[in-house]
Design brief:
- By secondary structure, this protein is of the alpha+beta class.
- The chain has nine helices and five strands; from the N terminus they run αααααααββαβαββ.
Amino acid sequence: MSEQNFSIKNWAEDDKPREKLMLKGKTALSDAELVAILIGSGSRNESAVSLSKRILSSVDNNLNALGKLSLKQLMEFKGIGEAKAVSIAAALELGRRRRVEEVVELQKITSSKAVFEIMQPIIGELPHEEFWVLYLNNSNKVIYKSQLSKGGITGTVVDVRLIFKTALEQGAISIILTHNHPSGKLQASDADKDITKKLKVAGEQLDIKVLDHIIITETGYFSFQDEGIF
């Protein structure tokens, strides 16, 4: 019998996702098997694993893309009701938050890539633009990070006074500016360059150095420092 018409409960013990995880460990399972554990069951004509493969196939087996599907989009798959859709969304959100917590340990900024690794899980996949500032001490360690603005896809509003007020309150020696481009374009606009210049001048007056301005996308970044714009 084919997998599609064969209920998981009739499979060999080693082939059942839950049992396989307990016997062989979580790393032995495929993405589809892990998703199958989340949804628990398929239907009379389709196993949970087969359903999971079908869902993953719709996003080219990309877990990041799966995490972006709304509950409504997940529920469009036959066999996925509200409860199963919520389970999938919750699990993938926990994975995203785990990534954020893991990069918190990358406190010392040694390169533009380090900033990307900190900020990509936070703003890299957003459908709208956000402007954040990293506040550093004299060892180039991040002592605080803050969202300054949240805007539409076309841009954000940056409050220069608030940035340096926060820097003084946190005792920051330097700052790094960062924002995302939902369009995926790794190119600095005139507005990006203008606000960077304005903040550099303001920082010089307060002896707080602006080290870099980094544009983040889902898969890459653009550093003003690396590109010699500073």
